[in-house]
Request: fold
Amino acid sequence: MAWYFYLIIVLAVVLVLFLLFTYNGLIRVRNQMKNAWAQIDVQLKRRHDLIPNLVETAKGYMTHERETFESITKARNLAQKAVGTGVGAQSKAEGELSSVLSKLLMVVENYPDLKANTNFLALQEELSSTENKIGFSRQFYNDSVMGYNNKIQMFPSNVIAGMFGFKTGEFFEIEVAAERAVPKVSF
Reply:
């Protein structure tokens, strides 16, 4: 009869250890996902800080493009307001900002003096670098979300995730159709 008692204790210890390791694993991947989102936020902040400098430099050369500047300023303000409102809302606002920025860079082609301005070129390079970092950060975030979602949806960790109220993560997706289009390059 004593061996039943030991068997129950061993099973209870195994169950507690399983719960503990699974719960801690879920916390780890959730924190990894949150960290990945924080990295996107850092790059988006950098982008938001660069845009006014780029616009001001371009304004000196581009006298007939007031509408372009207004739309950039509006999109930047909306993107800044979207910070902290959730991945979906922020993703949409940032997609619209990307679309407006690409319009600015197309308009710049009509101003040869501006294209040659060293301040503008430096700002454009910084913005390009930031856009690349945002792209890498988005990819890392989406990979983290996938890992987290897999963990909370796959058996047996989904049982523990359900017991402790873990919710699926939201992917950072492109919502602006213009961002999905392949850019046209012509010489």
Notes: The chain is about 80% helix and 0% strand. The CA atoms of residues 33 and 145 lie 6 Å apart. The two ends are 87 Å apart (CA to CA). The first helix runs from residue 2 to 59.
